[in-house]
Design a protein that fits this description.
This protein is of the alpha/beta class. The two termini are 20 Å apart. A 5-stranded parallel beta sheet has the order 7-6-5-8-9. It has a 4-stranded parallel beta sheet with strand order 2-1-3-4, sandwiched between helices. The longest helix has 19 residues. It is globular and about 55 Å long. It is built from 11 helices and 9 strands. Strand 5, helix 6 and strand 6 form a beta-alpha-beta unit.
């Protein structure tokens, strides 16, 4: 690895050049994934630990596949079967793992800032796989990669993010990344689920979904976190669907094509109808496929990039 460690802790403050470089690299790795033997020796000799303190399906499997496709040695850590249950701290867990000569740590944690904390106390490169309600940079990168593939550009693209913006790490990373790449970003949802200062991020705010859709090329639909309902942030799932659900009836009223995205997991019949999720409007499965290529590109970036590229 290079002497100066690289991390991907979030997309806030990441340059346009860096984001574009990761997207361009992902195109190369996506070609690798289509080969009869989808594996390259790019990260041979590199050891990656997947440190997941929260449940995950798509992100965890996607990282594991990306690591294997790059020939890295992979170690999987689960908080439910570790010494964390005996009271071990995050710092001690990570330092014990690093003492085993780990090069890269991929971390998902419920505490915002956990990846930044590890970056300060460990020598390994840190990749944020989601920290609390803060950021989820690789999800935003795969969303942007999917749009870049679809439209051939991000500059000037009108992207609407719908749902629980207040608690969404996906929304924050998408806003930071898309704005850096020149997209026009809007958010829409109930007033109780929109941060009061969100306009300071340079986004347009809508509370009426039908009006917001008229100004969008792309809709990124966020999962409604059902656990929030008990806190009175919206009256009922039925009312949420009526006001903010992406239905085929709503889309047909537009009289034009629009691209539908969702980071998953989906609450079908709440924030998005099955008819829409499975329609020609949807690029949801493309997002899942692109997740592996993007995470390969991110792993490649943090371990030194250009110095190690081998696609043979």
């Amino acid at each position: 690895m290079t002497e100066k460690r690289r991390h991907l802790l979030g997309l806030e403050g990441v340059s346009r050049e860096t984001i574009q470089g990761i997207l361009d690299t992902a195109f190369s790795f996506k070609e690798v994934l289509s080969r009869p033997i989808p594996k390259v020796p790019t990260l041979r000799g590199i050891t990656v630990v997947n440190l997941f303190f929260e449940p995950s399906t798509r992100t965890r499997i996607s990282f594991e596949l990306a690591e294997k496709r790059l020939s890295a040695d992979t170690v999987n850590f689960s908080a439910s079967t570790s010494s964390v249950l005996k009271g071990e701290t995050l710092k001690d867990t990570a330092r014990n793992i690093e003492a085993m000569k780990i090069d890269v740590v991929v971390i998902r944690h419920s505490a915002a800032g956990a990846p930044h904390f590890l970056a300060r106390c460990l020598d390994a490169s840190i990749i944020n796989a989601g920290d609390g309600a803060h950021e989820h940079p690789t999800q935003a990168l795969l969303d942007m990669f999917t749009l870049y593939e679809k439209f051939g550009k991000l500059d000037g693209l009108r992207v609407l993010i719908v749902g629980d913006i207040l608690h969404s790490r996906v929304a924050r990373s998408n806003i930071f990344g898309l704005k850096t790449m020149g997209a026009d970003v809007s958010v829409c949802g109930p007033p109780t689920l929109i941060p009061v200062d969100v306009e300071s991020l340079g986004v347009n705010v809508y509370y009426n979904l039908d009006e917001a859709l008229r100004h969008a090329d792309v809709v990124n639909v966020l999962r409604i976190q059902l656990e929030r309902q008990g806190r009175g942030l919206f009256p009922s799932l039925r009312e949420y669907r009526n006001l903010y659900g992406i239905t085929m009836e709503r889309l047909k009223k537009l009289g034009r094509d629009i691209v539908i995205m969702h980071p998953g997991p989906m609450n079908r019949g709440v924030e998005i109808d099955s008819e829409v999720a499975d329609s020609e409007y949807s690029v949801i499965l493309h997002q899942v496929t692109n997740g592996v290529a993007i995470r390969m590109a991110v792993l490649y970036y943090v371990v030194g990039g250009e110095e190690r590229l081998s696609l043979e």
